[in-house]
Amino acid sequence: MWERSLVLSAPGKVILHGEHAVVHGKVALAVALNLRTFLRLRPCGDSRVCIHLPGVSVRRSWDTSCLQDLQKGFTADFDESKSPSVEQLDTLREFAGIAAGASAPESLATLAFLYMCLAISAKYGDVPSVDILVWSELPTGAGLGSSAAYAVCLAAALLTACGAISCPLKDGESTARWTEEELTLINSWAFQGERVIHGNPSGVDNAVGTWGGALRYQSGKITPLKRVPTLRILLTNTKVPRSTKVLVAGVKEKILKFPAIMNPVLDSIDAISQECQSVLEAMPANPSPEYYLVLEELFDINQHHLNVIGVGHPSLDRLCRVTASHGLHSKLTGAGGGGCGITLLRPDTSPLAVEAAKRDLCACGFECWETNIGAPGVTLHSSSSLDAEVLQALSQS
Length: 397
Hints:
single chain, alpha+beta, nine-stranded mixed beta sheet
C-alpha cells in the first residue's frame, strides 16, 4: 500500500504567439503559466480509491477489488502509446454511471481518472489504495490548459503510487522534480488522459504541463526551448464565451476567399513567433531592457494581425485600450473571439501602474491575475513550501 502523503503541482499554459497560424503549419510558442493545479495524494486505509475534485463537485470512491475485476475484463491492453479504445471508455462510462456523450467537466474528469488509474496500475502493479484531492488556480474552459494540468498531476501521482517513478523529494527540500526519463513517462500518460477528455489533442498542453518553460510547436513537432526567462504578466479573462471551432473555420474561410491577402499575414505571424523565440533564448544570458521593448512591439503587431484574420473581439480591444492607457502592451491568447488576453509587465513597471490597470480591467467585468510565464513544469512540494491558500484548499477532507 502507498504510505506517504505527497503534494505535487503542474502549470497551465498560454499561447504567446502563433495561435490560429499554427493550424496552417506555422510556428506557435506555448509557455507555462504559473497558475497551477495542485494534487494531494495520501494513503487510503480501507482498500479503496478515492477522488475529490471540489472545483467540479466530484467526490467518488471505489473498492480496489472492484476496479481490479473491471481491469481484468478488458480485451484490449492498456498502453501509453495507443489511444484509449472505444470499448474501454464505454465500459468505464457504464461502470461510473456516466451517460454516453456526456461532455460536462465533472464527467470527463472522472472518466480520465478511472482510465488512468486502471491503465497505469495494469502496467505497473495493483490498483493503489489512494485518496486523491485536486484543486486548481486555473479557470476551466478558458483555453489555459486546465485539463492537461489535471492529467499531468494524475499521471505523476499514479505513476509514483504504483512505483513506476521515484519520489525525488528529500527531507528538508522545499521542491523537487523528476528525471528527464521519468518526465517523458509522465508526459506520455498525461497525453492519454488528454485523449480521454479531448479525443484528438495536439499534445502541446500536457508537454507544457510536464516540462514547463516554453515550447515551440509546428506541424505536430514539439521542441522545448533552451533556457527561457520567467516573464511577469497580467492574465485577463474577458469571460466572453466563444467557440474555437467556429473561429478556426472563420479563419480558414478568409484564407480561401483572399489567399493573396491572408497568406502573407500568416507568414508574418510565423516570423513573429520565430523572432520571439530568438529573443527569449537570448534573454537569460543578457537580460537587457531592450529585449522587453522588442517583446512589447511583437505583442502589438501580432494583436493587429489577429484582428485582421478575424479573431478579435470588442472585449479584447477594450482590454488592449485599458492596459495601453497605463503604458502596457497586450494581446489575445488562444482562440480569441473573447476568452483571455495577456499583458507583459516589464521589470521596471511601477506597482502603481499594475494595480491601476488591474482595477480598471476588473471594472470592465473582467477577471485578472498577476502571475508569470516560463514557470516550472510538474513539481513535488513539501507542505512548508506552499502558501496558505493552497494549504487550506488541500486540507479539505
